[in-house]
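Our working data are protein records whose layout never changes between entries. An example says more than a description, so a record of this kind follows.
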Amino acid sequence: MERWAKSIENKDRVLDIGCGEGRLLQKFGPNYNYTGIDFSKKLIGLARERYGGKNCKFIVGDITNENTWNDLEKFDKVFAVAVIHHLPSKKEQLYVLKKMKKHLKPGGVVYISFWNLWRKKYWREHLRGLPWKFRILPGLDSLRWVMIPFRKTGLKRFYFAGSKRYWGKLLAQAGWKNVQIRFDKNKKNMWAVLD
């Protein structure tokens, strides 16, 4: 995110999908024309406390719901940092990616990242989830589902384990040209910069 944040200019309108408590603003500050969307009222509340100002707008909304997108304008920069892999189906993922493209100004840029959930570190969680995956099985999407412990809370969070190839094909289906998915140097994350 630090590398991406450096590309933001004062004149840019920024959209942060799945903004949480405003983590992106930690990198470039609240003096930009910023809109953040998250489904968590609690996290949006924290973001408003920390970064509430005339240029920051925070929306409680579900990015898979049309109503969330209805009143949004177009943006110069759109961020989706570690968000799309929390959506359970290809249909929902594709919908959100198309909306991101639709709300991008000509000449704008989308920054998107995905966790690499096929690393050896997560194999045990994939195996533990097999009975659950086969019991639900609403389609092949569920074979990519994995529940991963969240820090040391004892709680598990849902993830969709897409591969580099999967995300690349999905971005192409959403209408992006010349998609290149890259790994970071330790292969923990995959990312793409799209224009």
Q: What stands out?
A: The longest helix spans residues 90-102.
